[in-house]
Amino acid sequence: MSKFKIAHKAPSIDMTPMVDLFFLLLTFFMLTTSFRPQEAAQVDTPNSISGLLAPEKNVFTIYISKDNKAFFNIDNGQDSTSHVRAALLKNMGDYFRVPFTADEIIKFEKLASFGMPMKDVKGWINAEGSARDRMQTGIPMDSLDNQLAMWVHFARLNNPAAEVTIKGDAKSEYKTVKKVFDMVQDKNIDKFNLTTIMDKVEVKPLK
After folding, report:
1. In the chain, what is the greatest distance between 2 CA atoms, to the nearest angstrom?
2. What is the pLDDT along the chain (207 residues), one digit of tens a residue?
3. CB 200: neighbour CB atoms within 10 A?
4. Which pTM was predicted?
5. Which of 57, 111, 120, 161 has the smallest number of CB atoms closer than 10 Å to its CB?
6. Within 10 Å of residue 196's Cβ, how many Cβ atoms?
């Protein structure tokens, strides 16, 4: 008696639902992603002998450009609902008698690093595009008008847990960097990070 052979079909998976899901997720991320604003100054950091990574949140940063100008940035801390940047701007406005509206404070919270005299901060907040970039002239840090020290003071007051990072350009002058170091330590901040490039340089002892 002859035997019947049962045809076996190779299993197949319909990928259409997965492709639809992929495009839905891609569209979602494209619509909800917020890009980081451009920094106030381009800083080419030097090499380092350390491999430690600097924190990305709950930190305030002092930038030193190659032309020895100072810039500042601070995030909203570990919990953005604390509105550290808003409180900082209010403190600086009260100290220097520069009033800010509620809308200007909200705008300031969404901006990145900045560097200009306090009298120009209101105009910088309300400016757009290249006009805003041209106002980045550096924060005064002279002995008679050390506004950078006040930004650090109120930043520390509003977020004592924030780590301090100094990001200096490799071509900035030593005396400017030392002035920033001394100013930070004068505010009782003895521990801070120095930002360098990602490539770690091995230092070999002299023979």
Report:
1. 110
2. 555 555 556 666 666 667 667 667 777 666 665 545 555 555 554 454 455 565 667 889 999 999 999 999 998 877 777 899 999 999 999 999 999 999 999 999 999 999 999 999 999 999 988 899 999 999 999 989 999 999 999 999 999 988 899 998 888 899 999 999 999 999 888 887 877 554 444 434 445
3. 13
4. 0.71
5. 161
6. 19
